[in-house]
Design goal:
4 helices, Diaminopimelate Epimerase, Chain A, domain 1
């Protein structure tokens, strides 16, 4: 992600245009989205996320972790527990020894659809997700996923997750993200969606390690149905661009 600090005031007015320009991996900086950090009315800080296609996402699990890591480093947060305002609601976050744990709320299960020749489980973890179980992840995802992402059963579009069960406490996934319009290395809400559906179907337990191309995340489904996602976040570099 690119992160723009607007804690002391707005820096970028045309946020959709900025995201389209600087997420470009050839002529911009290169990113899956742009996070904007600002003060919040109903939480400790606020996060907005704009994607390469200029759309604004409701929320992003991985983005929240990055935002919190930065906010702690910059002393905007001084507690191990904080709240983040997003379009999907206020998210509660706990930090422990570098691991950032996000309360992702209770996923909503919408049932099974048969789309593009696949059995597709539909759920919402802050954003809509399609979850598809496969035996082999060696798939041409950027070719297969758009037909599911734009399927009529998903009027707002959906992120598409292909999931392979490793054992009762590990799954491996690949995700095609709406707004990015290609496969990404990791998706937090997609990891939660995949772990939630796997657990709901009795194929995994309530604690799951999700292996993504970009690294591992830990997902826990509590007895009351609330999902928690844990992972780390790293600041790669800082720079200045002309706006």
């Amino acid at each position: 992600f690119i992160l723009i600090d607007e804690y002391d005031g707005e820096v970028v007015q045309d946020k959709p245009g900025f995201a389209a320009r600087y997420c470009d991996r050839r002529f911009g900086i290169g990113a899956d989205g742009v996070l904007f950090l600002s003060k919040a009315d109903h939480a400790d800080i606020r996060m907005r996320l704009f994607q390469p296609d200029r759309s604004e996402a409701e929320m992003c699990g991985n983005g929240i972790r990055c935002l919190v890591r930065y906010a702690i480093d910059e002393k905007y947060l001084n507690s191990e527990t904080c709240t983040i305002e997003t379009l999907a609601g206020v998210m509660k976050v706990d930090v422990d020894s570098g691991w950032i744990r996000v309360n992702m709320g209770t996923p909503v299960y919408s049932g099974i659809e048969y789309t593009g020749g696949y059995e597709v489980h539909s759920t919402n973890t802050g954003v809509p997700h399609a979850v598809i179980f496969v035996d082999d992840l060696n798939l041409a995802i950027d070719e297969i996923a758009p037909g599911i992402r734009y399927a009529p059963v998903f009027p707002e579009g959906a992120n598409v997750n292909f999931v392979r069960i490793e054992n009762d406490h590990e799954i491996r996934i690949r995700t095609y993200e709406r707004g990015v319009e290609q496969e990404t290395l990791s998706c937090g809400t997609g990891s939660v969606a995949s772990a939630f559906i796997s657990h709901r179907l009795g194929r995994t337990g309530d604690r799951v390690t999700v292996h993504t191309t970009g690294g591992d995340l830990r997902v826990t489904i509590a007895e009351d149905g609330v999902a928690f996602m844990e992972g780390t976040a790293v600041r790669v570099y800082e720079g200045t661009v002309l706006v």
